[in-house]
Amino acid sequence: MNLTTKDYEEMNKKASPNTKSYMTIPCAFIIGGIICTIGQALVNLYMYCGMQQEQASTVASVSLVFLSALLTGLKIYDNIAKVGGAGTLVPITGFANAVVAPALEFKSEGLILGLGAKMFIIAGPVIVYGVTASAIYGVILCLFNLV
Q1: CA distance 46 to 61
Q2: Regarding predicted confidence, which is higher, 128 or 49?
Q3: Predicted confidence (pLDDT) per residue in 81-124, tens digit
Q4: 3-state SS, residue 48
Q5: What φ, ψ does residue 110 adopt, rounded to 5°?
Q6: Distance CA 84, CA 92 (A)
Q7: Which residues contact 33 (CB under 8 A, 6 or more apart)?
Q8: Any residues with CB less than 8 A from the CB of 101 and at least 6 apart, and which?
C-alpha cells in the first residue's frame, strides 16, 4: 500500500483522538496538588513527631517514593495517572513510577536481564543528564566564583 504524506496525515488524524484540555488540565492540577498536599502533610507529621524541617522533608520524600512504588506494584498508580496525567508525572512520585513500572514489566525475563537491565530504561536518561548537567553547572559556578 503506497501512501502519500497527506494520506498518512489524514489517517493519523482520524485514528488519534483529540485531547480534551478542558478536562485534562484541571485533573492534572488537582491530582498533582493532592500529591503535593500529601507530601506536605507527611512533612508536618514527621515534624510533629520531633524531626527537624530538613530531616522531615527528606523522610517525606522517601515516603512518597515508597508509596508511589507500592501503588505502582499494586497497579493502582496507573489508574491514578489515567485521570491525573501530567499531575502524576511531575512530582517525585512520577520518577518512582518510571523506575518501578519497567522493572515490573520485564521481571519475567529474570532478575539480571529483566529486572536489573530494564529498571532504569525510562529513568536512566533522566539520571544521567541530571547528574551531568549538575556537574557542568557546578564547574561553571566555580569558574566564575559564584559559589
Answers
A1: 11
A2: 49
A3: 888 888 888 778 888 888 888 777 776 776 666 666 666 676 77
A4: helix
A5: 110, 165
A6: 14
A7: 87
A8: 72, 78, 122
Please report where in the chains the cell 514527621 appears, as a residue.
46
> Taking the C-alpha atoms of 121, 66, 52 and 30 in order, what is their torsion angle to the nearest 10 degrees?
90
Give the domain ranges of the chain: 5-93, 106-147
C-alpha cell at 112: 539480571
Q: Could you tell me if 106 and 117 are in contact, meaning their C-beta atoms sit under 8 angstroms apart?
A: yes
Q: Which of 143, 104, 101 is nearest to 123 (CA)?
A: 101
pLDDT score of 60: 95
Q: Compute the average pLDDT of residues 13-27.
A: 83
Q: Is 106 helix (H, G, I), strand (E, B) or coil?
A: coil
Buried b (16+ CB within 10 A) or exposed e, 100-109: bbbbbebeee
pLDDT computed for residue 67 by the predictor: 93
Place of cell 518501578: 100
Q: Where are the alpha helices (DSSP H) in the chain?
A: 5-15, 21-48, 53-73, 77-84, 86-89, 92-105, 117-118, 123-143
pLDDT tier at 45, thresholds 50, 70, 90: very high
